[in-house]
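Chain X:
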Amino acid sequence: MSDTEKRSDAEHRRAVREAVENAGRSLLSTVVWTVLAALGALVGLQSLQIAFYGVGTATVGFAAFGVVVTAASAYLLYDLHWA
């Protein structure tokens, strides 16, 4: 007899309940991180826009910040959905 044939109905229900909870938690986590990455990309693009219209040495900082944040957000989205 295999291990699965020896389990009771309560043990099977508990295993299924745990799997469903883990799947729901994983889906919720993916949604939250996707929203945060999208908002981060918008912040990075806004920083690039400020750098484009700005004058002075602060524009370099805004541009660098914008590039780093946008790239990090794009990588996070790639890692969440396509990797």
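Chain Y:
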Amino acid sequence: MIDLFLLYSKSFEDNFFELSFDHRFRIHPLKILDNSSLLDIKVIANKEETNFFVICEGNDFLTHYHDNAKLTAIVDEASRFGADIVFGGAESFEYGLYVSENLFWVDSCSRPSFAIILRKLFPYIISDTNGFKNIRSLEDLDKISSNKFLIYPFISIKKFKSDEINRPSLLCSITMERLAAIKKLKQYYSVPSLINLSDYDIESVKIPTYVINLPSRPERLSHIMNQFRDKSEFDLHITQAYKHERGATGLWQSICSIVKTAVLNDDDVIIIVEDDHVFTEHYDRNILITNIILAGSQGADILCGGISGGFHYAIPITQHRYWINYFWGTQFIIIYKKMFELILNAEFGITDTADDFLSSLTVNKMVLFPFISVQRDFGYSDITLNNEERGDLSKIFTSTEKKLAIYGSAYRKYIINSSLSS
């Protein structure tokens, strides 16, 4: 039987009585989480036979997905990942990583429900360390550990007086849909590639690479030529940028012109580069070419060398390549053949920007990480949005890198390291 500490609420006394007669749980009613009630929790945590217990708030309702036997199996699995806390549901989360059929690692949750406290956290509870003595709600629990997981599908949701008795909150439904999409995409990209890299002579590969430059900007041409000096893997072509009163339209016209050339040349893949591109310290010829081949084999339409933001969530496919739902930045983009006609047939609007528009054309978008490309700030922009509209270039690239690094850290910890130790 599972020990469940239920924070009693007058507003949800029906749920309290319903759980009281649920023989799957040993109910411990608490009016509030304070130093006195925490003593009751310590008693349970001190029992050798206790591997986990649950803390619920008055408006945490169980869903039809809950099953004690399956819950125990999920908790055991979470324990193998080093979990401290597993939530049965949440209204939203910021960063999430699919780690198994029923578990997502999450960075933080909004309005979590059904908090499962695992044995790994018991010493902190007993000794009042790690901030546990200051816990007053489930959201406070969310803040005391980075080893947090979310069960999918949700076994618990929060309901409010205005909710119908069997209807989950709208936010929980949206979050469930988001988790389902991430799971589906991760499973799709986890299918082993049939490509044999040994069939490719990577050392002799030369990729058609088109640099967009205005003749009136010789300083930018000089800069970009220096970037590609001694890099024989790029078959470099300088392409005159289309001049348009609206810079974004000129950039799109330039991209379309390059794609038309690629169609005529029957190219399988091309790289389009803006003349403010800068290679980072992470650039490596073999990593680039290997990921171009593998991303193509997994159905990628676009592979970015670096982005300045735009995405709401990302999925690590490998240590060096992430799927993203959106992107900003076209300073270094790899475009695959199956994307060519889609670009040429698309209707670019008078308010569109090239990166937003290109990003919206396909779901099959990836980015290399760490970035191999960022942008140099020349103090002006001929073909993209003014820097002021999105922020300082160096800051926005750094901010984006920090976000992707959170996913990367979780991927190494819970996917790579877990597979090595299993």
